[in-house]
Design brief:
Length: 79
């Protein structure tokens, strides 16, 4: 029974890794934010970044990164 659980956890780990790669690739580069120097960050999108697609991608990155670390630790246990 234990090898089956380990296989399932490994498959979930790989899916999390692929999702994390995809979310990171969808994000804008930091060079796109150079308008903040001239005060462009005070626009509607700058103030509501948490509700935009970029904010959602950032939250998804944090969540998937945390899951990736937890799954890494679980897979490293000696069962």
């Amino acid at each position: 029974m234990l090898p089956v659980i380990r296989t399932i956890v490994t498959v979930v780990y790989i899916l999390i890794a692929i999702a994390l790669i995809g979310v990171i690739l969808l994000q804008e580069g930091k060079s796109a934010g150079l308008g903040a120097i001239s005060g462009a960050a005070e626009t509607y999108w700058g103030k509501n970044k948490g509700r935009s697609m970029e904010g959602g991608l950032l939250k998804s990155t944090y969540a998937l990164g945390a899951l990736f670390i937890v799954m890494s630790l679980v897979l490293n246990l000696n069962w």
